[in-house]
Amino acid sequence: EAKDMAEKEKRNALSMLQNASTVYFDFDTASLSSSAYDLLSKHADFLAKNPGQSVVIEGHCDSRGTPEYNIALGER
Asked: What is the pLDDT of residues 6-61, one digit of tens each?
């Protein structure tokens, strides 16, 4: 029963993280907000407790800047 409970908790935590998986940067900055750090911390805790899980990390710029500007911003 304890194993079933742990598996249910894992599924619930994974579901919550999948629904809260997008981190947005503020305009014209490469710094994360405190709420973004909180979310990333929750993901890190889950991954530390579940080493068999994996994640995909992607970054995208919006269309407001020039391609050169967005490349430079992404490199920060």
From this structure: 888 888 888 877 777 788 887 788 888 888 888 888 888 888 988 888 888 877 77
0.70 exceeded by pTM: no
Are the beta carbons of 45 and 26 closer than 8 angstroms?
Answer: no
Instruction: Output the DSSP codes for 8-68.
Output: HHHHHHHHHHHHT----PPTT--PPPHHHHHHHHHHHHHHHH-TT----------TTS-HH
